[in-house]
Amino acid sequence: MLAPLRGPRHLLRLGEIVLTLARYDALFPLERVAGAALVVRGLRLLRRRDPALSRLRPGQRLAEALQALGPSFIKLGQALSLRADLVGEPIASDLALLQDRLPPFPGAAALAVVESELGAPVATLFQSFDVEPVAAASIAQVHLAVSTEGEAVAVKVLRPGIAAAFARDLAMFDWLARAAERLEPALRRLKPRAVVETLAQLVRLEMDLRFEAAAASELRDNFADDPTFRVPQIDWRRTSRQVLTLERVGGVRVDDRAALVAAGHDVHDVLQRAANAFFKQVFRDGFFHADLHPGNLFIDRTGAIVAVDFGIMGRLDRKTRFYLADMLLAFLMRDYRRVAEVHFEAGYVPPHHSRASFAQACRAVGEPILGRPLHEISLGRLLAQLFQVTEQFEMETQPQLLLLQKTMVLAEGVGRMLDPRVNMWTLAQPLIEDWMRENRGPEARIGDALGEAMESFARLPALLRRLDTVSARIDEGGGLPLHRDSLAAFGRRALERLGLPLWIIALALAAIAARLW
Measured between alpha carbons, how far is 49 from 23 in angstroms, rounded to an integer? Predict the structure, then answer.
């Protein structure tokens, strides 16, 4: 639960936010709120008279304002970059480029955090510790060090006081989201409060660096047998809630094409490895690095991709991966009726809507994108467009898919930097075909059906015991005076809700009848 908004301090903070947005001419999101247009026009008189600012797009001005407002607002901007359905694709694209950079805090403060968290003097933990950080962001900064065992490491230290600052601003975000839903009911479908809650959950995870360490460890385990994708080793002895120590890695940034070529790397091989690694994370493992901007990907001397910064990770359960695969395959085949069926089968679109109309909407999304040359087709953009046109069909927002869509756009951007003539998804085609055959082919579907049947069958004894108990109580004169026919009908409906095959239902009903009569 988020803390409630209360007290003059919150009101002063709200005034500061409004004035900052006004100075950057970034109040346009409020124009959608009923009755706010006149106020917005008045506040625009406060905007900065800066020619450079006037040349920026609205999304860029909003990004500048959020950067000026500090860490919580940088994270809010990153969260909104996932919500093209809420802010529009142009603004979401500009917010996706929001850089999470802040001036560093003093190195002495970082040393104090390390000693307090790890319970020992820095000199007994590290042979050397660079006081000047090599990178600083909204939540933490990174220092280079050498452990007492002689291992070169990077030490991430949480920014002092950051938890309290985020708690204050998250309470305000929640209050604003509630107000938006109350003043503009049409916004409820877009779940602005859910956006804030998701942001709060992400921030809570990022505030405890042990969670980031665990994410890196899990991703490393997933690729333990793959020499083409590396994750740094965690130094658990020197890791705690506010300190993360991991193997120091090096290499060439993945977007520095000239440096990659100069180092002797084959750019096409790099792109192939990136496509394979991303596919394996999303579809094989359902656990993916969700912050794949170029600064988090390096190419080491062996040509392997090395990932860093595991604060934002995404998960897709098996059902969602199957939905995603079936939906994308239907789109690529331009089978829009099947695209619609996949959405209805997954329960993402309420059943009272017309499948034919939804298929028509999917065609409107797919044709402009799929009609382009292969190297220009963007699956990330396809998903973004799909999420935007679903409002009239009451399709609820799926946060895990929004995170994936943003990650796909980032991955495609890296691919275009490496070779704009190649579509990275075609490079992963052999893996895609193998995965589809193993997981969505006829044999796999039969296996899934049998597995579901066995799980349902395993639940039968407990159900029969409960029915037997009810029957015994009725015979003893206790409980509700249900007729035996009513009880049998109740049992039949309960079994049907289990989704059992007909032959299992028939056997179960026979068993129920035997117990009743």
Answer: 9
Q: What is the rounded CA–CA span in Å between residue 84 and residue 91?
A: 8
Residue type, 326: D
Per-residue pLDDT tens for 238-259? 999 999 999 999 899 998 999 9
The DSSP bridge pattern shows strands 140-147 and 152-158 to be antiparallel
Look at the pTM and tell me if it is higher than 0.85.
Answer: no
Those residues whose C-beta lies under 8 Å from the C-beta of residue 143, and which sit 6 or more positions away, are: 107, 110, 129, 130, 131, 132, 133, 134, 154, 155, 157
For residue 363 the two structure tokens come to 């065609």
The pair of three-digit structure tokens given for residue 49, joined into one six-digit string: 């008279």
Within 97-161, residue ranges assigned H as helices are: 107-118, 122-125
Cα angle: 215, vertex 216, 220; to 5 degrees: 120
How many CA atoms lie less than 13 Å away from 348 in the CB half-sphere? 22
Give the confidence band of 505 by pLDDT, cuts at 50, 70, 90: very low
Residue 230, pLDDT score: 96
Condensed to tens digits (0 to 9), the pLDDT of residues 399-413 reads 778 788 888 888 888
Mean pLDDT of 146-150: 96
DSSP 3-state of 153: strand
- Active-site residue set: 291
Are 137 and 151 a contacting pair, CB within 8 Å? no
Looking at 185-251, list the stretches that DSSP marks H as alpha helix, in order from N- to C-terminal side: 192-206, 209-222
Q: How far, in Å, CA of 513 to CA of 15, rounded? A: 70
CA 94 to chain centre: 18
Q: Which residues contact 144 (CB under 8 A, 6 or more apart)?
A: 130, 134, 152, 153, 154, 155, 248
Give just the sign of the alpha carbon dihedral 184, 189, 191, 192: negative
* Range with the poorest average pLDDT among 15-29, 156-170, 204-218, 246-260: 15-29
